[in-house]
Amino acid sequence: MNDRKQWRQWKTKAVMKGIVIILICTGFLCFSVLAEEESGPTSNVWLDVIQMPTQAQISVTVPLSYGFAVIGSVNSNDKNPVSKENGNLLLPNVRVVVTTPSGTSGVNAEYAIQTVSGSSIPIRNYSTDVRDEYADEELPLREGLPVEVKPYMVAFQDSSGPTHHWQPASADPTWDGTAGTEDAAKLNFKKFQMLLDNLAFSVAGQKSIDSTVKDVFWLEDFIALDAPPNVVDYGYTSAGTAQVPSEKYISVQVRVGGIQNQYKQVEESVKVGAIYWEVIPGELPAVTEP
Amino acid sequence: MTKSKKLHTLIILLLLALIGIGAGIYYQMTRESNLSRLARDELALGGMLPGKSEQEIADLLGAKIAEGMVDIGIAAEPVFERNGKKGRLGIENIAANRYSFQVELKLDETGEVIYQSGLIDPGYYVEFVELNKTFQAGDYRATAVISTYSLDETEDRISEINVKILLHVMDGTFY
């Protein structure tokens, strides 16, 4: 009996000690997991008295990538230049139009590729500014600010690796389709030139400010974006950006070098490239006296 | 008997400790193995799997462009007080963006980096910053180099947007 009592006490103690050890181990585990937690953004965010900014705030929406696909061929007789007109270059806005609808008679549907209104992408401007004479007011009147943007593409791209990178070109690489120039055209395999707003990325130059990206092809000219319309009525955010932006759809064209039957593999036929941008704030328009 | 009890206690405690340590090691190993399962496949090729229709390819390209739309926000003429100690740079990465930002402020005249942010994820902003150099009062032309990253896909920079700005540096307080 006495032994039983002692056994129970011993058992209780052992269980308690076990629980303590398990708790300690769990504690170590939790500490280890917490120590490995990824931290959030490393920048500091100050909490401050809410203050409406009185300075110009730039806010633009731009596309950072653009893609196209070449419909290649393994048929050596497919010696067409690569172009939208020849039906072997696909751009994102291409739509399919049904020419023969699928019906009950068992006829397979037929489709035709048709460019509805040309490829275009939107660029938006939400920028606003405060005139100097209102800067000291508690709720200063903000007005839409025009900006100019100038995109560029990186000229050199690494051609190694399994994805067979494409190469931007400063001149039109498209083959003219003349048999005598076929061999020369083949040298432009996987070279491309992009155009935005009917302006080509053709001006070879250097970036002045960045050390990692030097050799670039600039667009021929700036693209001007209007000021956001009627900021007084449509309003603006607490960060000082317009609620309603000005919007401009810019046309996109791609010129692709090489001959259709040079594009034999899928990974050779698709290109999604990066577009880089420079944004230059404009100025508020002068006030016109009534 | 007393010795035997102590021995039993010791054995049980050791067993419990082993169970605890074993569970800990198992957890860590499972965790690491889960992480390695998520590593990128080195055999994966860029591009699309053969056999897609032209419409599917065009749709995918369209989706890629939609994903690539990015909105940047930054002050065009930030005022820095106390010779650069505090200024409202107003960097905003809106929640609708898919890319994280990393911002460097470079002096146009020298190319010197006078501010560098950490990674700013979509839905976050940095309002006030401190320059890493003391400036005399005056205006300085600079470029905000906004690099975009999609860490879900790659650690390489996706693209870059440069915004030309004008720094107003004061020696007194402003904010």
Describe this structure in words.
The complex is a heterodimer of chains A (290) and B (175). With 290 residues, chain A is of the alpha+beta class. Chain A has 2 domains: 45 residues; 196 residues, no CATH class. Chain A is 16% helix and 32% strand. Chain A has 4 helices and 17 strands. In chain A, the strands form 4 sheets. In chain A, strands 1, 6, 9, 10, 11, 12, 13, 14, 15 and 17 form a 10-stranded mixed beta sheet that branches. In chain A, strands 3-2-16 form a 3-stranded antiparallel beta sheet. A two-stranded antiparallel sheet of chain A has the order 4-5. Chain A is flat. About 14% of the residues of chain A have low confidence. Chain B is α+β, with helices and mostly antiparallel strands. Chain B has 2 domains: 31 residues; 100 residues, Immunoglobulin-like. Chain B is 29% helix and 37% strand. Chain B has 2 helices and 8 strands. In chain B, strands 5-4-7-8-2-3-6 form a 7-stranded mixed beta sheet, with no helix packed on it. Chain B is flat. The N and C termini of chain B lie far apart (79 Å). The interface between A and B is large, with 82 and 72 residues. Strand 17 of chain A pairs parallel with strand 8 of chain B.
